[in-house]
Amino acid sequence: DSLTLQTIMEGLLEKKAGILFGPPGNKHIIYYIDDLNMPFVDKYNTQEPIAFLRCFVDYEMTYEREKLGPRKVKNCDIVTSMNPTAGSFVVDGRFQRQFGTFSCQLPPGSSLTIIYGSILDCHLADFDDELGSVGKAVGAAAGELQDSVADTFLPSAVKFHYIFNLRDISNVFGGLLRSEARFCATPNVLVELMIHEQNRVYRDRLITETDERRYDGMLEEICKKHFGSIEGCEECFNKSPLIFTDFCSNTGGDDKPYLAVKDWTQLSNVLEQQLSEYNEQLPAMNLVLFTDAMEHVARIARIVGQPKGNALLVGVGGSGKQSLARLSAYICQYEVFQVKISAAYNMTAFKEDLAFMYKRAGCKSVGQLFLFTDQQIVDEKMLVFLNDMLSSGDIPGLFPAEDVDDIINTVRPEVKQAGLIDTRDNCWNYFISKTGKFLHTALCFSPVGDKFRIRARQFPALLSGTMIDWFKAWSPEALVSVAKRFLSDMQNLEEELQDNLANHMSHVHMTVTEGSLKYRESLRRVNYVTPKSFLELIALYKLMLGEKLGNIDTLKERLETGLEKLQATSEMVAELQENLVGEQAIVEEKKAATDAILINVGQETAAAEEQKAASADDEAAAAEIAAEVGAIQA
């Protein structure tokens, strides 16, 4: 905003007399203002920073906001620049009339060949003579490819990031300058390195298969034109994998040369070992390192492993951007810093986080990777700081005055040791330069919707200050590998069944993806099918299978329990039946004895009845006799 711009510009001036201000001593100051057309246009169609600069240029004055008074300035000039493809596209004519305007066109391929070919020739001076002659062909091929790519792949509303300029060819030659004479025994090594760097700079930015095939044809034609006389040139172009890294080399020393990967097995073994060590030391990540994932790790590590290396990872949700960035940071021995978004998180907290990373990188020389996603953008003003961070590395107003003094005092010994003059400006520039060496950024953005395109237009450093790694849709082989990995922990599934399920899930996902494309073409509506959807499919299947198997286990357990109880009951019944048989025999014996006793009792009863009858007769006779006796006595 205008207040920040005024604070920065007036901070370089000193008071001369009264309201007159100027540079220290008899110096003359020139302000360089980049991206002049980037300030926000308000509802009145004005831009506050432009209005402030117009007052500064037209009247050679500023306005002091606290004491409400003018300030005259002298010995100050302004040089500006702008990118006509970004921002508001226009600048106030009453301000632009004060400048002489020059249009800077990109140099043609022939000029690029001379410029970068000279740089490469100096680098190859210590190489074999045969490689030195190939260096000229490399420079010519790189310049021609730069022109062809810039003329063929033009930006559009969808392919807004198809902007190719000197930064791209500079990145290509930056990779070529990492080659070493002791590892370049043949010209083919240098050609392979050139192809690899061009693929990383140009091909990784392309988003359609048609563009990729077109680029491959252009590259193959240019390589045959300039390297057709070299034996094995076609093998260089068709080599798989064509990946150069500095973490797969086993040279036996502390240095990490930039060498080609021998095969997929070597790369897979190294990355699996790094992932295992990461999971032992940090929160575990359940990653499946299929071919595409290994390529992305190598690309991210290549980007952030270089000074001022910042990566822009573009892909839909679930592509693995954050996980692979964390693994790449571990390989490069960086700390990962990620803001913690909460309801109270605001711009002040964001500035504090940035200041913490800057101090840790610039003062303590700690390598860091700032991992930032588009979901963490709680305020669009955060992108203003990111834009400054990616473009120049110097964020205006990030540190208060006392912190700036502490930082300068901290780096002053290093400045002296580097042989620089111990001045305040040199110390601060050294701090910013050191920060660019140790602090790297990985932006994880989604291409869904218009936000990414709008932000890239409003903040051009998101594209110009980063190298893009576009995460495309997973291939069928990748889908099968991921499905097998997540199904492997289902111990109750046979291996053959797991393979069939993985292939079926991959086929279903690809079918739905194709159907979504037809749906978009016919109805102009979008149905997003992402790797996250595939992972949710696997998770849902495992959840439902677990529930079904759990129910089956419950029913099985109930059946087994019932069968056990029935078995126990059967055994008890059999035992009771055996006891019953024994007791029945005893009962029969006792019954027979009882019957015998009853017979005896019957016989004895009959005898007793007979005796009773006889006794009755005797009793009657005795009664008669008694009667007779009584009569006699009477």
Structure notes:
The structure is a single chain. The protein is built from 21 helices and 13 strands. The chain is of the alpha/beta class and 634 residues long. The strands form four sheets. It has a five-stranded parallel β-sheet with strand order 10-11-12-9-13. The longest helix is centred in the last third of the chain and has 103 residues, at 531-633. The N and C termini lie far apart (165 Å). 25% of the residues are buried.
Shape: elongated
Briefly note the structural class of the backbone.
alpha/beta
**Largest sheet, if any?**
5 strands, parallel
- Summarize model confidence as the mean pLDDT: 86
What portion of the residues fall into strands of 2 or more residues?
5-15%
The protein's oligomeric status is single chain
* Helicity range: 55-70%
Radius of gyration: 46 Å
Span between termini: 165 Å
**Number of helical segments with 4 or more residues:** 21
Which stretches are poorly predicted, pLDDT < 50 over at least 5 residues? Answer: none
Widest sheet, order of strands: 10-11-12-9-13
Q: How many β strands by DSSP?
A: 13
